[in-house]
Design goal:
This protein is an alpha/beta fold. The strands form eight sheets. Strands 1, 2, 3, 9, 10, 11, 12 and 25 form an eight-stranded mixed β-sheet that branches. A four-stranded antiparallel β-sheet has the order 8-18-19-21. A three-stranded antiparallel β-sheet has the order 20-15-24, with helices on one face. One of its GO terms (biological process) is secondary metabolite biosynthetic process. Keywords: FAD, Flavoprotein, Signal.
Length: 660
Amino acid sequence: MQRRMGFLGVFLLSLAAAVSGLPGHHASLKRQVSQLRPTYDFIIIGGGTSGLTVADRLSEAFPKKTVLVIEYGDVEYAYGSFDPPQLWLGPPPAQASAWTFFSQPNPDVNNKTAFVKVGQLVGGSSAVNGQFFDRGSRFDYDAWTEAGGHEFRSSDIKWDWHGLLPYFKKSVTFTKPSAELVQKYGYTWDIPAAYGGSTPIHSSFSPFQWADWVIQRDTWRDLGLPIPKECAGGDKQGICWVPTSQHPVTARRSHAGLGHYADVRRPNYDLLVKHQVIRVVYPKGSGKSSSPPLVEVRSLSNPAQPVFNVTAKAEVIISAGAFHTPTILQRSGIGPAASLAAAGIPTLIDLPGVGANLQDHSGPGVIWNCNPIIQLTTITDTKPRTFSPVPADLLNATYLAEATAQFNEVPARGPYTLALGNTAIYVSLPRAAPASFQTIVSKILELANGPLSNVAPFFPPNTDATILQGYKSQLSALATLLSNPQAPSLETPWATGSDPTAWSFLLHPLSRGFVRLNPTDPLSQPLLDYRMLSNPLDMDIHLAHLKFLRTLVSTPTMKKYGAVEVSPGAAVQTDAQLAEYVRAQMILSFQHPCCTAAMMPRSKGGVVGPDLKVHGVKGIRVADMSVMPLLPGSHLSATAYAVGEKAADIIIDEWKKSWH
């Protein structure tokens, strides 16, 4: 078995073959039903971040068993989030395929709609995201178990921080920067605390920073924020270096389509592209208690081809993401009975939590202007000078050509290695709002400990009681999380003063949305109802974050440059004015949807248990970002890999016992 070939030797060759369709690229790449085997042991629905991780591990663990991944998209080159000739934070010149979603209007946010992009290719969203490769704090993942209650705390399968950390470590290969870069930028890391894996999913620090990056670093220091050595080891509070999901030599995007498919050579691992899974279906007369179901598929390249079934002998793993996993379950008759009936789908099992519990990061920003920038270019400089280079320099044709040439060197260097940046601050609610956080937490606890009727107004009419009960459990866990001075509530990514906005990411929203089938066309894209600010306490937290970020223009560093707040602006001072600013300026999605097939008890609106098996049916598991009960305080790519790794181990352990 050839497992991991030298990356530099095969990277461009394998991508060229994938894009051009050269013969012999992959014996496992299938495009027609006629190319499939009669049956498979495991069928994985969705060739994204978690799904390909599971497929790689299962095919490795069971070389005599067959694995099929069914993917809606195709094999494509995945551009980085900042590649030549793109300008800094400008529209990309080329991009891999993605779905674009617009939610239903949000009445509590001036009827704004959320815009969400989801990867539609082999590699999924890991192939189209911003390459920001952080993890949540240890307290984020501990909250998953707390929300699940006694049933989950007593399970042998642990999804808390200690249960996930080995999989975070296993899932990525981190490459430390050179001594020269450490001297220049002050990079810090802690491999024993956070890393140690040898998987060809790579993360690293860029060999480049824009020259004005020190402005915001010094601003956050002025605010008294700590600077931890490592923010991926569970302790995540203050000014953080965040790795980028790119190869440390080529600086090209590292994603699941490469590390868990293109770099894998196994005869038992097949990938069927350009096909849509319609549903999982139990053979007539077998019933939902038999296992496994069949997988009903249609060709996207040849719509005239009849719908066909693929048989799994062991089980089916759905890994189609926060929007499409609940859609497939609902088309299979697994979901809220009323919603299924509206779409004309017979109910196999009434499971109200399927498609419920939708969460995403959101927030407004604080914008300021500064005087022309003169500052130190490196940590060790003693003589001030004009900042150079800065993003505006890319408008110069000579510098743009130089930056492009540097990116194509081996090793790559220059601004195009930076992706969208690798710095952020993370701040807890007690630190951001020391005078008001206790009031907010008390209000959350009042809801958590009160009757269901107190939380029902935050949901659509006739919401099932199990969902309300589970929401109360989540609120209890969130109250613990938000009162913890070591658990971040706010994130602000930053990279350069040329984009003078401090974005306010609400890391732990209280509002919950839904994903539902389109009742007039169940095979089309689902309907998203984000319901942002449906719980008004989210506004209280937004205001607390916004007030904290407004203080940055008063720091000595910002005063040095004559910083002036542009937005919200001096005229906006009262809470009512700030609330209107939030509604008008809030970004409804920072592209981190999750939690729509939640790992919670069925009595609490859950869809899967700690073993990831769907409640009430046999032969189906879910392994992707839909299983999270609570949104962690991080971008989701690293967590998606860890969930895939842990899911694979759960499945492997169970079937080893059955087969040996």
